Amino acid sequence: DSEYGLSTDFTPHGLGIVRPGDVGATAIITRSMVRIDALLARSFATLRLSADLTVPTSDTAITWGVEEEDDGGFVSAVPTTTFVVPSGIKRVLISCNLSMVAALTGGSRVVTASLLKGSTVIAKHSLTEPGLALSLARQVTVVAGDTFSIKVITSGGGAAPQISSGTATNFSIGILEVI
Q1: What is the pTM of this model?
Q2: d(Cα 54, Cα 56) in Å, to the nearest integer?
Q3: Is there a contact between 167 and 98 (Cβ–Cβ < 8 Å)?
Q4: What's the start-to-end Cα distance of the chain, in Å?
Q5: Is 38 helix (H, G, I), strand (E, B) or coil?
Q6: What are phi and psi of 144, to 5 degrees?
Q7: CB–CB of 87/96 below 8 Å?
Q8: CA–CA separation, 13 and 80 (whole Å)
Q9: What is each CA distance from 1 to 17, 25, 26, in whole angstroms?
Q10: 83-115 CB burial, b ≥16 within 10 A, e <16
């Protein structure tokens, strides 16, 4: 449908079409306005560490102690190990950045971080000497109640590395698409 060279088909965005004489036009427009509002609302949540964290030698979920922001309802309270997806969300971008206090040393030192959706690993990244930081990110389709967490483990020689509690270390989730 095009009038004056302007596309008037917004159905790919989940919006209804109202034609002259449609019964229930008010309801169609109301649903469409709610949908537009939801499309414009791009909510995020970011968690940070409350103190430097020594990376354990067994696979352990990171406990995040500082809620930097949460305008999407992903965090019920801190400290927490997870983001929980509220209702009405279809797709999110989940990311984690881990910055070490100092570069890895000790010959064969490795730090591995895993991004989990529930108990399933959906992304994994390893950092080796002389690495200083690592990042994980995924776009994921979700349903209400899905959880996301980060697990870390270290192996190899030398002193156990520490993850910095500075702002470069964070765990974030953002809404990409709503239902």
Answers
A1: 0.76
A2: 6
A3: no
A4: 25
A5: helix
A6: -55, 135
A7: no
A8: 35
A9: 10, 18, 21
A10: bbbeeebeebebbbbbbbeeebeeeebbbbbbb
User: Tens of pLDDT along the chain (179 residues)?
Assistant: 445 554 555 555 556 676 777 777 777 777 777 666 665 666 889 999 999 999 988 889 999 999 999 988 899 999 999 999 998 888 999 999 999 999 887 677 899 999 999 999 999 999 988 889 999 999 999 999 999 999 999 988 777 899 999 999 999 999 888 87
Tokens at 12, concatenated: 């790919």
Contact at 8 Å (CB) between 116 and 131? Answer: no
Q: Which residue has the tokens 């930097």?
A: 68
Query: 140 CB contacts (<8 Å, ≥6 apart)?
Result: 91, 92, 93, 94, 117, 122, 146, 148
Backbone CA torsion sign across 70, 150, 56, 161: negative
Tell me if residue 12 falls in helix, strand or coil.
helix
Show Cβ contacts of residue 80 under 8 Å, excluding neighbours closer than 6 positions: 47, 63, 64
